[in-house]
Amino acid sequence: AGLETLLLNVSRAVTRDVLIAFSPTEGPSTLNTTEKGKAGKIHLPREIFRSLSSEIVCVMVTVLNIQQLSMFKEVNQTGQVLDNTVVGITVGNTSISGLQDPVQLTFTHRRLPHGITPQCVFWDPSKGQAGGWRSSGCVTQPGDKETVCSCDHLTFFTLLLNPALDGSTAQALMAVATAGCGVAMAFSIFTIAFCIFIRCRFRFEETVHINLGLHANLVGSLFLLNLAFLINSGLSGRAHPGTCKFLGGLTHYCLLCCFTWTALEGCQLYLLFVKVLGIYIHHYLGKLCLLGWGFPVLVVGVAGVIGSYGEYSIQTKDHQVIARLCWITSKHLLVHYITNCGYFSLIFLFNMAVFGVVTQKSCSLQHTGAVQDGPRTWKVVLVAAGLFCLLGATWALAFLTYGTSSAPVLYFFTILNSFQGIFIFIWLVVLYYPKTKETNGSLSHIIRQEKTTTTSQ
């Protein structure tokens, strides 16, 4: 199933090029000019047959539909195979490579979507442990409705549809991420200092002190994550394998700490706005710190035992390595999907539910007049934006950058997530710094009004 083969006996003394048509639905056949534009074409140059010793050689063209096959599956493959079609070409019983006059394969297709780049590749069984796609020796000539692949050897070919991430865009994204990490680290220090200053300088109720402690720990995890990324990107590629494993585990730990503290922020908001009463726990902040900084240790420890960390390469659409990071290796992608994607997905769904409840309750308090002299509209917007950052909504953009993402989406995710620390700093200063005796519009004021309203009810 999914395989069509054409066998041709061709004379060694052939004076003309050999032309063959192939279709993912009908397989290969001798070229019919009436089917022009409806099927792909294979052009075999005379040079191939002149180098053979036999008078008669066998040309075999195989068209595979790999959708239902377990072969030709590359680990961590980002591009999609056009029509799930792979074309194999063999002439005689010898390996043919280094052709001066290349073999040409014409892949027909519809107009490709914006942000998709075609790439001619061949299957290399020696790449990695299970094989992979390579483009060396092949030249891609894209067109509106067809793409021509010119290759200097014979093997199994296909056309990959890759995200439009070229080398210059990738380098620019790395530069933006590096600059953003530096700025985020500086503002993280400012935020932690501000939280310490305001807790010592002004008298707040215990709930606000706990909130400030939570915010300081979240920002601290962001600081460590940015620092780990900068160290990682600076040392990886030339670090000892043992050092690279340590850096990969450290970066993973910092990321999980950031996610965990984001979840604890959501739990705190749930207790304040939904439970409202009866949330006082002995050594509450200390227990949160034990969970926020301790739980990721267990996850990273288990991942380290099974050898999940090592060198990870970031490649462009033409498989050029632009950066090497110490991270979860390609062999253990399941660890990444479970501990990062799955873990964050659960946290994000919970936090967005909490955000919806908080927004609904805040609006109901405004409409019923429970909050006297409420905040201005711009301050409500600022509170909502700050809550979105605290609850990790910027990290959710990572799900939009997978697969066929365009460059603007990648830039937006990189910039917004890199400067998350700046947004949190501005949010905390505007929200918590008292300009008057009564900090109207602050989160603590809304909480007090909610408690009063619930008690009276």
How much of the residues is beta strand, in percent? 15-25%
Through-space gap between termini: 70 Å
CATH third-level topology of the largest domain: Rhopdopsin 7-helix transmembrane proteins
Query: What's the number of domains?
Result: 2
Profile the largest sheet.
Answer: 7 strands, antiparallel
What's the number of extended β-strand segments? 15
CATH architecture of the largest domain, by name, is: Up-down Bundle
Order of helices and strands: EEEEHEEEEEEEEEHHHHEEHHHHH
Give the overall form.
Answer: elongated
The CATH homologous superfamily of the largest domain is termed Rhodopsin 7-helix transmembrane proteins
CATH hierarchy class name of the largest domain: Mainly Alpha
Show unreliable segments.
436-442, 453-457
Estimate percent helicity. Answer: 40-55%
Rounded mean pLDDT is 79
Rg: 30 Å
Provide structural commentary.
- There is one protein chain.
- The protein is elongated.
- A hairpin with a 5-residue loop joins β14 and β15 (321-328).
- The strands form three sheets. Strands 1, 5, 6, 7, 9, 10 and 13 form a seven-stranded antiparallel beta sheet that branches. Strands 3-2-4-8-12-11 form a six-stranded antiparallel beta sheet, with no helix packed on it. A two-stranded antiparallel ribbon has the order 14-15.
- It has ten helices and 15 strands.
- The protein has helices at 47-50, 167-201, 206-235, 241-275, 284-305, 333-368, 377-390, 407-418, 420-432, 443-456, and strands at 3-11, 18-23, 27-30, 40-44, 56-65, 80-81, 85-91, 103-108, 116-124, 132-134, 138-142, 146-151, 156-163, 309-315, 321-328.
- The chain is 47% helix and 21% strand.
- It folds into two domains: 3-163, Chondroitinase Ac, Chain A, domain 3; 167-444, Up-down Bundle (Rhopdopsin 7-helix transmembrane proteins), CATH 1.20.1070.10.
- 32% of the residues are buried.
- The chain is an alpha+beta fold and 457 residues long.
- The protein starts with a strand and ends with a helix.
- This is AGRG3 protein.
- One of its GO terms (cellular component) is plasma membrane.
- Residues 177-432 form the G-protein coupled receptors family 2 profile domain.
- It is found in: Cell membrane.
- The chain crosses the membrane at residues 172-198, 210-230, 250-273, 285-309, 337-359, 380-403, 409-433.
